[in-house]
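Complex 144.
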Amino acid sequence: MAIYRDVQCTRRVMGKCAHESDLLAELTRVCKDNGVSLGRVEAIGAVRKARVGYYHQDRKEYEFLHFDGAMEILALIGNVSIKDGEPMVHAHVTLSDSAGRAFGGHLASGTIVFSCEFVIEVFDGPEFLRAPDEPTGLPLWNLK
Ligand code: ZN
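Predicted structure with zinc ion bound:
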């Protein structure tokens, strides 16, 4: 059975990432600088190179894929919650190459921005805390 809570969007933070910044670190910094502990993230733009994770459910571990070269960010979507006492951005990204072929995965550090425009919706409500989840091996929301 799903476990969920009501949340209210209280404000939005909208901006652009610095050229050559690390995309995940940049979005995380914006959240920390703006006191965002619960919310959602979306972004579009382009990257110079990307590093994304694919989670092997059988081995319970991430494999990281590296894509070198210029790509469009067709869609980045994610959320913000708390892990180890700090805001954590969990985002997935769909990228495309020069032929329009799409691929992607779990956004990881090492994805370097060419340009990126983002919107972060800030939610009001009790914090969502991440904790180790036994059946998946992932740090998931510990909702009661
Ligand atoms: Zn993920």
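The chain has a mean pLDDT of 97.
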